[in-house]
Amino acid sequence: MKRTLAALFLTLLLCSCGAPREPESVQFFAMDTLMTITCTEEDLDAVHHAMREIARLDALLSRTREESAVSALNRGETVEDAELAALLTRAAKLCKATGGAFDVTVAPVVSAWGFTADEYRVPTQEEITALLTHVGAGGIGSDGEVTTLAEGVSVDLGGIGKGYASDCAARVFKEENVSGALAALGGNIYAHGTKSDGSPWRVAVRDPFDGSAYVGALSLTDAFAVTSGGYERYFESGGKTYHHIIDPATGYPAESGLASVTVVCGEGLLADALSTALYVMGEAKAIEFYRTFEEPFDMILVTQDGRVVLTEGAAALWDTSVAEHSYQYETINKL
Ligand code: AMP
Ligand code: MG
């Protein structure tokens, strides 16, 4: 799928049938991802407004569109844009908070593995070592309005952009009094309000080892749920699989013992950044982070050895009726 088509909106009225409260599904392609927003017919205008907001963000944040502000930054230009400055300042703060596991300046390493242009390759250790000298959030300079990157530094907002877009969709839904909508921006979900029958939205979490199965489902109202997993984008070379979530400490795809991480919280940007970071950290560090991080969140870790680890808040929203395979579930608390 090519990533330039942000403005190509395809409205699919999947279940219209003329009934006013039947859910409608609006599908469109943005941020290199197929996105779907489900709502009732009376909220379609607001949903189209949210889609335009997401298209605007795609044009601002894309690394592959030459005219975007992020591309200008990555070419070494100084960019004056308060929204981008705020986003990068927050990204730098989250880099520090996660001990560098989430780092938007990992961009040149992501590109060296071919994930930017979809031209996959295994870089040499020398190449990775050289590129890592340009990785580190200290390379982002911003005064709140104007942003400049240090020499050789570039940024990739692929690990945070869709989450931020879901926050913008949430703002539009609130401003326009949408009663209920489910925005699925790839693996980034925002559940606004309830379904038209008053029940919470149900969001199933995929089995990372079986694309047609689910490990369970969350019941969500006014909450964000974001999943990161190596299965989402990868290639194979020499009998080995290489995925798109890079450990900034090594420059290699993270091999942390986790197969997927889902984060549930009240902010899309945070859920998105944390799902990427916790995937890099692995189970033990992720649990420690959950217990010490200042902002509340819940998580579901699926480990490479097939366990499903839920924080107590996630366990309270969880049901396993969609799970066709049997899994070992474990619940952890804050202590
Ligand atoms: P996600 O799917 O949200 O986990 O984000 C993965 C995407 O974020 C990748 O496709 C890269 O564009 C970028 N990325 C990869 N590794 C990292 C990392 N450690 N920190 C921040 N962004 C990353
Ligand atoms: Mg992410």
Low-confidence parts, pLDDT < 50 over ≥5 residues?
A: 1-20
* Overall tally of domains: 1
Distinct small molecules:
adenosine monophosphate, magnesium ion
Strand adjacency order, main sheet:
1-2-3-7-8-11-14-15-16-18
State the end-to-end CA separation.
45 Å
Chain-averaged pLDDT: 93
Count of DSSP-assigned helices: 9
Biggest pleated sheet: 10 strands, mixed
Radius of gyration: 20 Å
Strand-residue proportion = 25-35%
Number of strands: 18
| Coarse shape | globular
What is the fold named in CATH at topology level?
T-fold
Fraction in helix: 25-40%
The CATH superfamily label reads: ApbE-like domains
Order of SSEs, N→C?
EEEHHEHHHEEHEEEEEEEEHHEEHEE
CATH level 1 name: Alpha Beta
> Per CATH, which architecture?
Roll
Tell me the structural class.
alpha+beta
Walkthrough of the structure:
This protein is of the alpha+beta class and 335 residues long. 29% of the residues lie in helices and 29% in strands. The strands form four sheets. The chain has a ten-stranded mixed beta sheet with strand order 1-2-3-7-8-11-14-15-16-18. Helix 1 (44-61) runs antiparallel to helix 6 and helix 7 packs across helix 8 (283-292). The chain starts with 8 loop residues before the first strand and ends with a strand. It binds adenosine monophosphate and magnesium ion (MG). Adenosine monophosphate (AMP) is lined by residues 102-104, 106, 110, 115, 156, 158-159, 228, 232, 244-246, 248, 272, 275-276, 280.
